[in-house]
Amino acid sequence: MTRYSFEPSDIFVNQIEAHPQFEVVMYKEATYINRRKGLGRSVTDGTISLYEMNVDRDGSSQQKIYPFMPKGGSLTTLGTTDQSEFSTLEKGTEVTGSYPLTGSVEREIFTSSTRARIDALQNTLEYYRPMSQHFEYDTGFSSDDVNLISIPSLMIGSGIKKGSVSLKWYFTGSLAGELKDTNKNGELVSVFGSDSGSVAGVVLYNEGFILLTGSGNISDDATVTDTYLDGTAQQRPQWRYFASHATSTAPSSSVFVTTFKGTEVVPTLTMFAHAPEGELINSINPTFLVDGAVVTIDGENIEGPRGFIENDEISIMNTVQSVHCSHSADFERQTFLSKVGIFDEKQNLIAIAKLANPVRKTSDLGYTFKLKLDL
After folding, report:
1. Which of 337, 375, 373, 332 has the alpha carbon at shortest distance from 356?
2. Which among 84, 143, 157 has a CA at the least distance from the CA of 110?
3. What is the pLDDT of residues 255-313, one digit of tens each?
4. pTM of the entire structure?
């Protein structure tokens, strides 16, 4: 086995910025992410899993894996552990959690009497204020009803991509209204409906929040009504009622669709493995030699405690095929490269890159294999 060392110019680390797109459809208490309701037997419908653990283990016939740690003097524990319950445990007690961990898009509406979470966003809204006057807390969020849509970091990564947000409101299958951040400054501008051109909310890109304050009727048709609030009363569609699919009396004629792109920064290790000309044209495969050849020197086997001695009189099998029938091609040494092994500084094999199709290697050919690994 021939081994080569990577030169400094053969290894470098960079970052790839990806923007995975999500489409979240909400209808009659059900949520569909990217047109799928469930992503595993143990995953709650309308959610996505963080670590892809236990997603297909039902728990009855298959043992589920779980995180655990003993309670120590540092009081460090799992993030999902109830702090009040944790404080009553004795030191050494094993604290356990559960998988899968999931996340989904959630919606809450806040009125003048229930505004704790909205008030907590005041400083964040003021941070975005240089982008648009619609982020001003006192005029837009201090007293009016606010419809808060929360997107987990599991979906957006390090933030929502600007210009990718779209909120569509369908009524009986027809598009009734749409909001988009067309200006890429956080403003959700109506691009379809009777309120077209107005700003009905804002997007906090880094935090994954959408705040809707539009109280105007989306449709001019007074017969377009549904049960957007708890109870049996009918209301005209307004953006502050968007995503009200999980109320006790879910609207039956309205479908809410939220589309956005996240931002995922993936560190990537790139390595260039070289197969130089004139090298890597030998094989330890027994079929590489002429059939029937005996690998001995002076009648003794070359393998033994004294070392390894290669017999240079053994003939190599000619594996080159001629294009003509009943004709032998001229001899040429060739091998077929199918794998590239990566070793650490202690010569431990830590990775193997497999080629989809073996590459023919001859004396006059040299190759460079580009290997990429997401860190």
Report:
1. 337
2. 143
3. 999 999 999 999 999 999 999 998 888 777 767 777 655 555 554 555 555 555 556 66
4. 0.74
